[in-house]
From TrEMBL:
Transmembrane segments: 108-128, 140-159, 166-186, 242-262
Record-linked InterPro entries: TLC-dom, TLCD
The species this protein was found in: Alectoria fallacina
Biological process annotations from GO: lipid homeostasis
Pfam families linked to this entry: TRAM_LAG1_CLN8 (PF03798)
SMART domains found in the cross-reference section: TLC (SM00724)
Name the record gives this protein: TLC domain-containing protein
Length: 287
């Protein structure tokens, strides 16, 4: 399935030298998705989110301290992005018939334009996320920074192309992100311990566990098996060791963070509804 958004030839030519240097062959075909999405998220974070929040929540947002406003704006961007990327990923997984016929070799080395489109938008977001996490490390913490680095690495390696098939499947981690951000916003809007937050919390734990732990672990195991099969392939087809290590380490880092955050999430929710109003750092990650 082709990328439905046509790449401008001038941008393709402009990004070709960088793509050759980094050995990311399909990167120029999706630079028109990476760069605009990065620019859009930067503008949303710096201008639109603060302005909209002032108007929509005049009794809350203006009274937040500087650190909380940084977190609020980033979560507003994360909420919008996760809803959009989930919709795009699910649509491509369902509509892209080429993906349905891929065997182990194609799942490692294969590529479709539609999958590249989703990874392009994801890469633009994770590039922005890396910038924000590094600039405000004291607010977001090292875990979020590690997540941004690993997610960006996985997205960019998909343009080699390498595991482009699985990169799209891993985007579905974001299914839990809207609920996580809504839960955080409820705290700031004085809804801590409310019935609405309890319902959202149950949905959050269920979705997080299903999308990141169950689905994510299953896809990781399948990916490891396919990479190992490709690694043992005949001459001319094997996976370079450094490439396999880079992708596996990045993906494993994301998996470990997901299990860690899930444990913190359960602990925080239990404390929160035993003692309404009490907050815990376990819900502070915007991932």
């Amino acid at each position: 399935m082709r990328d439905p958004i046509i790449a401008p030839s001038s941008l393709v030519h402009f990004t070709n030298p960088l793509a050759r240097t980094l050995s990311l062959r399909t990167l120029p075909l999706h630079a028109h998705e990476i760069l605009p999405s990065f620019t859009l998220y930067t503008y949303l974070n710096s201008s639109i989110a603060p302005l909209a929040s002032h108007h929509l929540f005049p009794k809350t947002y203006p009274n937040l301290d500087a650190r909380t406003k940084v977190n609020w704006n980033a979560r507003a961007v994360s909420l919008l992005q996760s809803c959009c990327i989930n919709t795009a990923a699910l649509a491509v997984i369902y509509l892209d018939k080429e993906r349905w016929t891929m065997g182990p070799r194609e799942r490692v080395w294969g590529y479709t334009g539609a999958s590249g489109m989703v990874q392009g938008f994801a890469a633009g977001y994770f590039l922005w996320d890396l910038m924000i996490s590094a600039a405000h490390l004291d607010v977001h913490g090292p875990g979020v920074l590690m997540h941004a680095v690993s997610a960006l690495a996985v997205s960019l390696l998909g343009f080699r192309p390498f595991c482009n098939y699985y990169g799209l499947n891993f985007v579905l981690y974001e299914l839990s992100t809207p609920l996580l951000n809504i839960h955080w916003f409820m705290d700031k809007l004085g809804m801590t311990g409310s019935t609405a937050q309890l319902v959202n919390g149950i949905a959050l734990v269920t979705t997080f566990g299903a999308s990141r732990l169950v689905w994510g672990t299953y896809q990781s195991v399948r990916m490891y098996q396919d990479i190992w099969a490709a690694f043992e392939a005949p001459a001319g087809l094997p996976v370079p060791p450094w490439l396999a290590v880079a992708y596996v380490v990045s993906n494993t880092t994301l998996s470990v963070l997901n299990f860690y955050w899930f444990g913190k999430m359960i602990t925080t929710l239990r404390k929160r509804f035993e003692k309404p109003g009490k907050e815990d750092d376990g819900m502070n990650s915007k991932k």
